[in-house]
Recover the amino acids of this structure.
C-alpha cells in the first residue's frame, strides 16, 4: 500500500480533530452585525484571523446551520469585537441560543450600524468583502474600514477552557551586575536607600504587573478596585493619593467599572457591588500570590519588619 492510498483511507474523528485543534490557543471574539430591517446578531467565535495588510482584510467562519448567518449575509458591515480578560460572562452570553443577547449589554452602533461592544481589547469594523464556502462553515472575509485599539489584555481560549496572556518566563530578563563598574562608588550606590527602593520597585513590578493585567483590567482600574475594597479612602478626593494617579484617570476608570457592574456612585465615594467585591478579591489573590513568591526565602519576622519599615516610610498606619 502506497502513501497516497493510506491518506485516502484515513478518516478523521470529529471529536479527536476538535481536541487536536484545541492545542492552538486563540483569542475570543464576538462578531456582530445588523441588517437593514434592524435585526441585530452576535456570535462568539475564535476563528478570527488576519488575511492581508493591503488591503486590510480579516476573516472568520460561521457554521452553516447558524440562524445568525442570514443577517451576516444581508448586512453590509460587521464588527469583530476582540474580548478582554474581564469579558468571560459576555463570551458565554453570546454563545447561547434563543436569548436576547443585546439586552443589558453596553454597545454603540458603528459603521453599517454594526454593534460595537464596550471595553473590548480591540474592535475591527469591517465591510463585507467576500463569502466563501468552506465545508460545513461559511468563511466571511471583511475589509477593515475602521478599528479601535484599547490595549486591554485579551481573553484566550485553549483546550476548551478560558485562559489569559502572560509573558513567557524566558523573556523576563533580569537586570544583572555589569563588569567594569567603578568599584570606588559601587558599594556606596548599593547602600543608598533611595536607589535600592527605586530599583526594587521596578523589579517587583516587572513580574507582578503582567500578572495583574492578565485579568483584563488596566492598572488604574485594578488599583481603584483594590483601594475601594481596602477602605483606605474616605472620599473621592482621597483616591488620587491612594491610587497614585490623577483624578481624571480615576474618574475614567470608575466609568468603565460602572459599565461592568463592579461599582456604583455612593454619596462622596464609589461603592463596590457584590460582583466588584468578588473581582477585588480575585485581584488581591493575584497580589498575595506574587508577594508570597517574592518573600518565600525570608522568615515571617523579616517580612513583617520590612512591611513595617515600608509603612513608616510611606507615612501610613
Amino acid at each position: 500500500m502506497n502513501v497516497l492510498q493510506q491518506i485516502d483511507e484515513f478518516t478523521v474523528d470529529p471529536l479527536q480533530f476538535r481536541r487536536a485543534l484545541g492545542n492552538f490557543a486563540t483569542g475570543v471574539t464576538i462578531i456582530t452585525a445588523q441588517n437593514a430591517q434592524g435585526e441585530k446578531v452576535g456570535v462568539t467565535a475564535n476563528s478570527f484571523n488576519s488575511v492581508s495588510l493591503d488591503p486590510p482584510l480579516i476573516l472568520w467562519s460561521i457554521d452553516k446551520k447558524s440562524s445568525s448567518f442570514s443577517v451576516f449575509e444581508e448586512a453590509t458591515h460587521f464588527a469583530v469585537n476582540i474580548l478582554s480578560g474581564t469579558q468571560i460572562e459576555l463570551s458565554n452570553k453570546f454563545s447561547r441560543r434563543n436569548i436576547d443577547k443585546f439586552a443589558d449589554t453596553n454597545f454603540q452602533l458603528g459603521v453599517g450600524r454594526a454593534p460595537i461592544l464596550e471595553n473590548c481589547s480591540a474592535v475591527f469594523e469591517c465591510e463585507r468583502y467576500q463569502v466563501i464556502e468552506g465545508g460545513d462553515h461559511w468563511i466571511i472575509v471583511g475589509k477593515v474600514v475602521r478599528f479601535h485599539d484599547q490595549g486591554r489584555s485579551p481573553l484566550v481560549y485553549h483546550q476548551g477552557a478560558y485562559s489569559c496572556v502572560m509573558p513567557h518566563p524566558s523573556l523576563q530578563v533580569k537586570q544583572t551586575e555589569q563588569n567594569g563598574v567603578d568599584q570606588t562608588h559601587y558599594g556606596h550606590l548599593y547602600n543608598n536607600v533611595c536607589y535600592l527602593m527605586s530599583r526594587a520597585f521596578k523589579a517587583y513590578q516587572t513580574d507582578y504587573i503582567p500578572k495583574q493585567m492578565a485579568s483584563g483590567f488596566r492598572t488604574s482600574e485594578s488599583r481603584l478596585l483594590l483601594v475601594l475594597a481596602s477602605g483606605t479612602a474616605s472620599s473621592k478626593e482621597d483616591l488620587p493619593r491612594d491610587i497614585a494617579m490623577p483624578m481624571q484617570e480615576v474618574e475614567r476608570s470608575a466609568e468603565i467599572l460602572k459599565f461592568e457592574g463592579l461599582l456604583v456612585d455612593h454619596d462622596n465615594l464609589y461603592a463596590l457591588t457584590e460582583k466588584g467585591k468578588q473581582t477585588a478579591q480575585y485581584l488581591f489573590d493575584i497580589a498575595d500570590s506574587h508577594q508570597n513568591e517574592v518573600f518565600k526565602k525570608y522568615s515571617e519576622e523579616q517580612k513583617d519588619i520590612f512591611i513595617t519599615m515600608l509603612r513608616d516610610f510611606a507615612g501610613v498606619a
Notes: The mean pLDDT is 86. The two ends are 80 Å apart (CA to CA).
